[in-house]
Amino acid sequence: MMVTDRRAWPRPAAGEIPTESGLSMPMALGTCGVAIFYASVLPWWMPLVWWLLVVATGIFRTWYIRNKSLTELPLRRRIWIQRILVWSFSAAMSSAAYFLYVPSDPLKQALLCFFGLCLALIFIFYVSARDPWRGSGGLVILMLPTILRLILEGAISGETSTLAMGGVALYVMLILARVSIVHTRLKAQQIDAQLKAERAADGMALLAITKSRFFAAVSHDLRQPVHAIGLYLDPITKLAHRDGDPTALRAVVGVAQSWQILNDLLSQVMDIARLEADVVIPEMARHEVASLVEDLVVQHSSFAESVGVRLVALTRPNQFVHADKVLLQRVLSNLIANAIKFSPAGKSVVIAVRPWRSEWRIQVRDAGSGIALAEQQRIFEEFVQINNQSRDRQQGLGLGLAIAKRLTELQGGTLGVRSRLGHGCCMTVLLPRSHHSTGVTLQDPIAHPFVNTDSLIFSIQKPHGEQKYSVLLVEDDLLVGGAMTELMNGWGLDVHWEKTVSAARAYTGEPDVVICDWRLPGKVSGWKLALQFKSEGRRVMMVTGETDEKLRDMATEHEVPLLIKPVAPQALWQAIRQLL
């Protein structure tokens, strides 16, 4: 690494092989041409000796700096060796003051000064940028002998042209020395800025990795107790209904609603965190917009009917968009749900798909009260709710549109709003069209849990009064394991609970279903254990707090059902029923 302190100018890094000012092929040919030119006016041996000195020192320097033994020396000693090599090469060049000097010939002397000037410029831009002592020393050694001879001859012979040439060359040498120092400082500042930028980039990369790890750990650790609370609610709900205590029933409903809000907040905050940590990677593919919108209309039709709002879809077949199907569904689902919520009874919510240049405009229009122009950009900020100053949780958390906007931008699109007070609102998703098939989509990573009293009728029994279905539960968390065991026992299942992989492998029973957590103590993961049971012909299911995309891909590839904690009791019940 190079040092940029004024007291310690940039140095070659350890092991670096500097090649500047060595004897390259163009320089060898150039010096040969100079020697041939002066051989026509001087004894032939003088240009030849000069050229051999230049070639010999250049070849030696080039060979030595490429020698591995140089890189093994201490840094300070290596720097001084490189300086001496540069100065030796400069001295060989400056011997032109004797071997190529033509007395009483101003033209040849001017050409010699010009040649020295060109070499000096090379030193400035290729040597002084690394080490001003090498550059300045080489510059003085290279030009000063010729300058002194010109001044001395001009003073002795009285030739003012020669004396003036020497004076001008001395002035140029001083100017070049100054340029060399300025160039070195500018280069040092440039290197310093580059190093700062690299450190900042490394810091940002490290911060992103740390954030990703932090939120992965927090997500897992928070999902465990939330998952356990949801499972424990089921037997409490049963007891409250059995006793018929209205106070207990109201308390159960309140706890269930609070749990739902907590779960929604956890899921959405984790979504924001995953987006900020750049761990959400969209699977872009070609999808027909009409079928996607139709699915969403069916999904939201029940909610729309309950509040007296009509859903209208204006789409055509063969309209294909390039997007991630799951992410796009989440975006449009949020927009449709908001449009239904803010539209008065008897009005319509319209989902329309219109062409726009090389993109599709997917618009969701409502007939609500509209949004003021000054508030239209704020609605995409986290935890901002324009008409909910009291923070009523029943109206949401203020994260839906922020997540929708980021998910849209992640797919290369934009999400915008057009509205006027009293004239409803139009949300527009702009995404590129697709003309080629490019792949498949992901599963929805977040389950949709909700606790209600329907769990009272949950029952999983073998037909004809046979023995109970048996379940092997592998879960290391005591709260979660206890809650799941009690819940499934209440459904008429025979549950055997193990906390480690080794204990699960040692189990001699023949379970009908194996439910594994992903993260288990020890070196063997719950995933490997699940694959082992699946290879033995067992019905296997994963229940985990991990949200990594790779885990879902692996589960899909091996056809292993995967539930993400927190899991509502009915979601777990339905998954087990499907397996059986």
Characterization of this structure:
By secondary structure, this protein is an alpha/beta fold. It folds into 3 domains: 134 residues, no CATH class; 199 residues, Response regulator (Rossmann fold, 3-Layer(aba) Sandwich); 148 residues, Histidine kinase-like ATPase, C-terminal domain (Heat Shock Protein 90). The protein contains 17 helices and 12 strands. The strands form 3 sheets. Strands 2-4-5-7-6 form a 5-stranded mixed sheet. It has a 5-stranded parallel sheet with strand order 9-8-10-11-12, with helices on both faces. Strands 1-3 form a two-stranded antiparallel ribbon. Strand 8, helix 13 and strand 9 form a beta-alpha-beta unit. Helix 1 runs antiparallel to helix 2 and helix 4 runs parallel beside helix 7. The longest helix is centred in the middle third of the chain and has 84 residues. The protein is elongated. The N terminus is likely disordered.
| N-to-C SSE string, H for helix and E for strand | HHHHHHHHHEHEEHEEHEEEHEHEHEHEH
Q: How many discrete structural domains?
A: 3
The name of the CATH superfamily of the largest domain reads Response regulator
Task: Show unreliable segments.
Answer: 1-22, 389-394, 436-457
Mean pLDDT: 75
Distance between the termini: 64 Å
Helicity range: 55-70%
Oligomer type: single chain
Gyration radius (Cα, Å) is: 40 Å
Number of strands: 12
**Strand content range:** 5-15%
Structural topology:
Elements: H1 25-39, H2 45-65, H3 68-71, H4 75-94, H5 96-99, H6 106-126, H7 132-157, H8 160-243, H9 246-276, E1 285-288, H10 289-306, E2 310-314, E3 320-323, H11 325-342, E4 348-356, E5 359-366, H12 400-410, E6 414-419, E7 425-432, E8 470-474, H13 478-490, E9 494-498, H14 501-506, E10 513-516, H15 526-535, E11 539-544, H16 549-557, E12 562-564, H17 569-579
Parallel strand pairs: 2-4, 8-9, 8-10, 10-11, 11-12
Antiparallel strand pairs: 1-3, 4-5, 5-7, 6-7
